[in-house]
Design brief:
Number of helices: 1
Helix content: under 10%
CATH topology: Methylamine Dehydrogenase, Chain H
Strand order of the largest sheet: 1-32-31-30
CATH class: Mainly Beta
Number of strands: 32
Structural class: mainly beta
Oligomer: single chain
Length: 405
């Protein structure tokens, strides 16, 4: 088995030096903030009101491993899952639970201890009337979106760590061994697969496939983004986001783990220790590029592409030419979720459970609200002006944002 690196372990190691605050009363301990410590939240005049429309508890939450499970919105419902196999659909306007199912049970990590290992790590995605999840047991599981009943489950080559998607009667999933696989949406039968070589060392995660107008686009651990004909798996083009550099394998990590953004005029993608690029959908040629590093999803709105970099700075790039429109460093090292952008807002959440609203035009702070005391790391999703999030504790919440009166 190839050696894969858990991104949570990297982040944890980078923060080990910041644990001296407990002993700041001692005269020989320097109590001044270190340059790499998380930024303190500062006061400002809020310009928006963040209201919680409803909330619900989803199973046992995401556990202590670095599991991120995005809510999935379809029609009048939002579907969410915990890391232990519970999947639920709720009315997305009122929060009423519509169905609940379990796709498997976790194994005990230590005999007799009662502790359970997480196993649901890829999700939630869907399409073609299906809800799709992936597991660390190398399964893709399809449920009916109407009632949550299992339609099929298919064994694939390796762990599924990102949300599968579906379109054109097929379901598409990325596996941790560098493959993109297409399965029949009705039966789960494998139709085609595309294989790439995984570097000796890479982040623990995979880019989620994106389907649009008969084309599937996804990123890979080798630093490339590829486009494929959805029906057949025929490669249309690939583009390297970043070429591995450096002497050590750690320095050469260039995973494209964030989900690409597919727009008619450009595809936006970024890599860890690399660049953010805008690519032509027709042939993958580069429209513009800018040096930055990220391992999470991008967002696009208001003429900008928004990136949370590895230091948790939030940057906005002009989607036409890649110029930096603004940079917000006030959330430095607060372990931010991927951004979600809509209307005039950019929304991120942090490891303390705060939701932060920034102005899409210039990045200034507009408001914040604490939602989950266990923190929020999963991507949020917006639909019809409501933001849906899944906190680490399993709290599923619907938030609305409105200007203060």
């Amino acid at each position: 088995m190839r050696n894969r690196l858990n991104v949570a372990a990297i982040l944890a190691l980078s923060l080990l030096a910041g644990g001296c605050s407990w002993f700041s009363w001692l005269p020989w301990v320097d109590s001044k903030p270190k340059p790499d410590e998380p930024a303190d939240l500062t006061s400002y005049k809020a310009q928006v009101t963040i209201s919680q429309r409803w909330s619900a508890s989803i199973g046992s939450g995401l556990g202590k491993k670095y599991v991120r499970l995005t809510p999935y919105v379809v029609a009048d419902r939002v579907v969410a899952a915990d890391a232990y196999g519970n999947v639920e659909a709720h009315d997305r306007f009122k929060g009423k639970r519509l169905w609940k199912t379990r796709v498997g049970r976790p194994h005990s990590s230590t005999f007799g201890s009662g502790k359970k290992d997480t196993f649901l790590a890829g999700g939630v995605g869907g399409g073609e009337g299906l809800v799709l999840v992936g597991t660390t047991r190398a399964e893709v599981i399809a449920l009916g979106v109407a009632d949550g009943k299992e339609k099929w489950r298919t064994q694939v080559s390796s762990e599924v760590l990102s949300a599968p998607t579906a379109g054109q009667s097929l379901a598409y999933a990325a596996t941790s061994d560098g493959r993109l696989v297409a399965l029949d949406a009705g039966t789960g039968e494998q139709k085609w697969t595309y294989d790439t070589q995984v570097p000796p060392l890479s982040l623990r995660g995979t880019s989620a496939p994106v389907f649009d107008h008969g084309v599937v686009v996804t990123g890979f651990a080798n630093g490339k983004v590829g486009a494929f004909r959805a029906a057949s798996g025929e490669p249309l083009w690939d583009q390297r986001i970043m070429l591995p550099q450096g002497r050590s394998e750690l320095e050469r990590i260039v995973d494209v783990d964030g989900t690409p953004i597919f727009r008619p005029t450009a595809i936006f993608a970024a890599s860890f220790q690399g660049r953010v690029k805008a690519l032509r959908p027709s042939d993958g040629s580069v429209i513009w590029e800018h040096e930055t590093s990220t391992s999470v999803d991008l967002a696009e709105s208001f003429g900008h592409v928004y990136v949370v970099n590895q230091d948790d700075d939030v940057l906005a790039f002009d989607e036409r030419n890649g110029d930096v429109a603004w940079e917000q460093r006030g959330l430095f090292r607060r372990k931010l979720s991927p951004p979600v952008a809509f209307d005039n807002y950019v929304v991120v959440a942090d490891s303390d459970g705060y939701v932060h609203v920034l102005a899409a035009s210039d990045g200034r702070f507009l408001g914040r609200k604490k939602v989950d005391g266990s923190g929020i790391r999963s991507p949020m999703i917006e639909a019809d002006g409501l933001v849906y999030l899944l906190g680490n504790s399993g709290k599923l919440a619907a938030l609305s944002i409105a200007p203060k009166k």
